[in-house]
Specification:
There is one protein chain. By secondary structure, this protein is an alpha+beta fold. The chain contains 5 helices and 4 strands, in the order ααβαβαβαβ. A 4-stranded antiparallel sheet has the order 1-2-4-3. It is globular and about 45 Å long. The mean pLDDT is 93.
Length: 195
């Protein structure tokens, strides 16, 4: 496994995945990283709903895409040229990019730091995934995947407490063979102020 700094410097959003499912031992380590993430007041309020059901993931990903209205990319303003997002390519109809594993993070609706708790858990999990050779991509506005009757049915099936909402999804899968690992963008200057 890579060192923490190696994973931090190497990690990139991956949106092109192999069809094969990730290994269970990799998934367990990634989930452990999320479970041990910091949380406001140590509340541990984030619920991790892991779906490896291709049909469910594809349908929820299409619902999310239909309910998302990203400002579409232009020649000078885009998310990624190497691995386009749904904002970059209107032909992409699955907001989950056909990832074999989709983890939806749910958190309390009325807690001030629900989004923050999910974000730090996602970062822990993305770093663990990278260290294990698993690709990951953080997708915000998780609730849009459940914004129709099918999505509501899934929430009931998963027994999600109505006091919780889908904050975001974390997509996991092995990077598609033959695709180059996305290159890092140069770091901008003057972002660290010292006094």
């Amino acid at each position: 496994m890579k060192s923490v700094m190696e994973a931090i410097l190497h990690r990139r959003a991956i949106r092109r995945f192999e069809e094969r499912q990730i290994a269970e031992e990799d998934l367990q380590q990634i989930l452990q990283a999320g479970l041990y993430a910091p949380s406001a007041g140590g509340r541990q309020g984030v619920i991790f709903a892991v779906s490896q059901d291709k049909e469910v993931n594809e349908r929820l990903g299409k619902i999310k895409r239909a309910n998302s209205a990203p400002k579409m990319a232009t020649a000078t303003s885009y998310v990624s040229k190497e691995q386009p997002s749904i904002a970059d390519d209107p032909k992409l109809i699955n907001a989950f990019y056909d990832a074999p594993t989709v983890i939806t993070m749910f958190a309390p609706k009325n807690f001030l730091f629900s989004v923050d708790d999910c974000a730090v858990a996602a970062e822990n999990m993305m770093l663990a995934a990278d260290a294990l050779g698993v690709g990951a991509c953080y997708i915000g506005q998780g609730w849009t995947a459940f914004a129709d009757p099918y999505g509501q049915e899934i929430l009931r099936k998963w027994k999600i407490d109505p006091g919780y909402y889908a904050v975001m999804q974390l997509l996991l899968g092995y990077p598609r063979e033959g695709d180059a690992h996305p290159s890092p963008k140069p770091r901008k200057n003057d972002r660290v102020l010292r006094f």
